[in-house]
Amino acid sequence: MCEVNAPPGTWVEKIPLAGPDAAFMTQALAQAARGLGRTAPNPPVGCVVVRGGDIVGRGFHPRAGEPHAEVFALREAGEQARGGTAYVTLEPCSHFGRTPPCADALIGAGVARVVVAALDPDPRVSGAGVRRLRAAGLDVTVGVLEDEATAQQAGFRSLVARGRPWVVAKYAMTLDGKIAALRADGTPEGRGAVTGEQARERVMRWRDEQDAIAVGSGTLLADDPALTTRGVPGGRDPRPVVFDRRARAPLTARVWRPGAVLVTSPAADARAHAAAGVQVLRAATLPEALRGLGRLEISSLLLEGGSGLLGAFLAAGLVDEVRALIAPRLLGAGLPPLDGPLRPLGQAETLSHLRVEPLGPDVLISGLLNEVPRLQGAAAREE
């Protein structure tokens, strides 16, 4: 196993994916998932407390400023936590922030063992939480389902390591690579579902799990999308972000709800939007815009179109993850999902961590273009 006092280089040693530790950590990850899209700038974290082979406490972090997952799980466990094992998807914090240190809560509850999925990239923690637990005499194991936990925390890790949100490019296209039909004048036809019901339900779940959702001005003018989470039980609508260099998006558009952001150029006249309560973010480049969204504590961004915006993000190397829904339909002439400069086949972007999943008649192909940030430099090493 990968112990916290192991020498540099052994952090990535893999823990077996079978057995009780993996099973209980899977339950902790399920708890953490309940906070997706709700915790920024904090990470989604889950915890279960186990005593005698039974889960006696469960908890997740609901939002910034509220207690962390460990606190909720320990409250539910009560005295049964003493001598038990806590499974936590992220290293317990060891510093005072908006809430007291969770490492101290675990120590005070009398937990005998703590199993951690992944170390915290926050330089205020970065191994300090685990060292604090071990110094108090607790048995600590690190690395159980680390890859799964790291993927779940992608937004938080991106915000800490890069100062910008984790960017997910989503699009739905026909088998011949079209996202919309074209009118006779060459403009997109507008509204119309490419994929089936199961794929659309999955998209609504993705929206619920992301901090923000983005479209370009062309998509807004053509479709007037609401960008909500229709039909998701307990769902919350992500924060809308409109990339519009000329600030031409009408104030009657359905996206303008509380928290909406207009990303526009430094020279654009966005006074009417600002007066209407829209957050105006001025940026000359896409990297600058993403850093601005990071300062607004947006940790994850779902790009929903159109092809110009997706193509610009891809050309700038700012797409971290791709989720492509493919319908078994042939359209012929139509709009491609990505619009950008021509490049030779040898320069094509290749996805890693590839997944293929059927969704009714459609197929989801997803993968990464950038790795999720983990520990950085000396923060990954033990003293």
UniProtKB/TrEMBL annotation:
Cofactor(s) demanded = Zn(2+)
Q: In which pathway does it act?
A: Cofactor biosynthesis; riboflavin biosynthesis; 5-amino-6-(D-ribitylamino)uracil from GTP: step 2/4; Cofactor biosynthesis; riboflavin biosynthesis; 5-amino-6-(D-ribitylamino)uracil from GTP: step 3/4
Enumerate the Pfam families for this protein: dCMP_cyt_deam_1, RibD_C
> EC number(s) for this protein?
3.5.4.26, 1.1.1.193
Asked whether the UniProt record includes Aminoacyl-tRNA synthetase among its keywords, one would answer no
Which segments constitute the CMP/dCMP-type deaminase domain?
19-141
Q: Which reaction does it catalyse?
A: 5-amino-6-(5-phospho-D-ribitylamino)uracil + NADP(+) = 5-amino-6-(5-phospho-D-ribosylamino)uracil + NADPH + H(+); 2,5-diamino-6-hydroxy-4-(5-phosphoribosylamino)-pyrimidine + H2O + H(+) = 5-amino-6-(5-phospho-D-ribosylamino)uracil + NH4(+)
How is the co-factor bound, per the entry? Binds 1 zinc ion.
Keyword field: Hydrolase, Metal-binding, Multifunctional enzyme, NADP, Oxidoreductase, Riboflavin biosynthesis, Zinc
Q: Cite the PANTHER family for this sequence.
A: 2,5-DIAMINO-6-RIBOSYLAMINO-4(3H)-PYRIMIDINONE 5'-PHOSPHATE REDUCTASE, DIHYDROFOLATE REDUCTASE FAMILY PROTEIN (AFU_ORTHOLOGUE AFUA_8G06820)
Give the family this protein belongs to, as stated in its UniProt record: In the N-terminal section; belongs to the cytidine and deoxycytidylate deaminase family. In the C-terminal section; belongs to the HTP reductase family.
Biological role = Converts 2,5-diamino-6-(ribosylamino)-4(3h)-pyrimidinone 5'-phosphate into 5-amino-6-(ribosylamino)-2,4(1h,3h)-pyrimidinedione 5'-phosphate.
Q: What is this protein called?
A: Riboflavin biosynthesis protein RibD
Supply the gene name. ribD
